[in-house]
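To illustrate the input format used throughout this study, we show a single complete record. The first block contains the structure-token representation of the backbone; no residue identities are included at this stage. The design step must infer an amino acid for every position from geometry alone.
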């Protein structure tokens, strides 16, 4: 009778042969699982030409990959706004998320009207060097954000309107795609 060590080695060596005989065909083994695609990429709703036109300058778009989405618009000319968009799935909604966020003492917060949105927030702030505008739009469990940073001299009205426009594009696309 073989000892336990020999029996273990025989089992280790024969398991691959036994497993190979269990398949339906003689083809290669299935590919390793791939990372799951992300729920959403905000760049599906925004494009460089429209973003550049609304924010006031030509931009380059970076949209990442299906498994690691990214939505960033960098200006081709130094001094033009930088724009990023992102999202989170949060079933408690924007109002609950908002209560957990820190507040700037100098920022102005409004609730712009965005068709199809369940809730919105727009935060506008600036310092001696730049303008910061962040918008939030909720569609169901999906909360999308748009961040714009524009160095001096900045056009606050234009950038604010452009962020609200981007929120509208994101909201409309989420409804159309059934993501909300």
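Output of the design step:
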């Amino acid at each position: 009778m073989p000892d336990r060590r020999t029996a273990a080695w025989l089992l280790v060596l024969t398991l691959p042969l036994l497993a190979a005989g269990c398949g339906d065909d003689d083809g290669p083994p299935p590919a390793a699982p791939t990372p799951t695609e992300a729920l959403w990429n905000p760049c599906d709703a925004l494009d460089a030409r429209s973003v550049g036109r609304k924010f006031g300058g030509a931009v380059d778009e970076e949209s990442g990959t299906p498994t690691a989405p990214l939505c960033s618009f960098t200006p081709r000319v130094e001094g033009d706004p930088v724009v990023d968009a992102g999202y989170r799935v949060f079933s408690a909604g924007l109002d609950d998320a908002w209560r957990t966020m820190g507040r700037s003492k100098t920022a102005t917060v409004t609730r712009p009207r965005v068709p199809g949105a369940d809730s919105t927030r727009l935060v506008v702030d600036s310092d001696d060097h730049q303008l910061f505008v962040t918008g939030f739009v909720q569609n169901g469990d999906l909360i999308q954000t748009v961040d714009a940073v524009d160095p001096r001299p900045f056009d606050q009205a234009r950038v604010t309107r452009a962020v609200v426009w981007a929120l509208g594009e994101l909201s409309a696309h989420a409804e159309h795609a059934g993501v909300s």
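Structural context for interpreting the output: The domain at 42-177 is CATH 2.60.120 (Jelly Rolls). Residues 156-177 form the longest helix (22 residues).
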